[in-house]
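Protein: Lysophospholipid acyltransferase family protein
Species: Chitinibacter mangrovi
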Amino acid sequence: MFNLRTLFVLLVARPVVKLWLGLTVRNADRLPHQGPAIVIANHNSHLDILTLYSLFDLKDITNVRPAAAADYFLRNRALAWFATQVIGIIPVQRGGAKKGSDPLAGCREALQQGKVLILFPEGTRGEPEQLSEIKSGLWYLAQEFPEAPIVPVYMHGLGRAMGRGQWLPIPFFVDVAIGRPLPWLPERPLFKAQIAEQFQSLRKKVLPTQESV
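Structure follows.
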């Protein structure tokens, strides 16, 4: 039975990413089909979530939940309904939670329910095709779910196809590389360094030769 999210992926996300932009994926078999699992990706574009959804089988879509900025996606009622009911985001408060609130509560609940959680550990969209600092939220969340694999995904091209400030996607081919699952490490700096190094390694696999030197 198709729900709104599956129909959104079938009728919008996949046509935009695969037909309008063009997509190459390396090691798609490394994506988890069931949770609890955490898929982490670099963040350059509003198309990132559509692209990540396009990597999964349609039968798995209802089990996949992307975390996204509450201050952006809940800024009006229409967008909030579309983001939560159609795209299926888990709203996350950025820039420090209010006293007594837990910004990762929705993510924690999704993992407890056995979902595949999509996170952007840089926290926000960065400069096109550039990696930003890894935030600590992933480390705090992952330490509560040490059995959950952390699967890194690097996407190249989306910052040019529809970067910050752009509202229409420009046809620009997208390359995606998926890494092997990473472990949670008790030392936070080492864990963050591991994530950054893995993104850099995957980045080299998808960059055109002239950009990787």
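Remarks: The longest strand covers residues 150-156.
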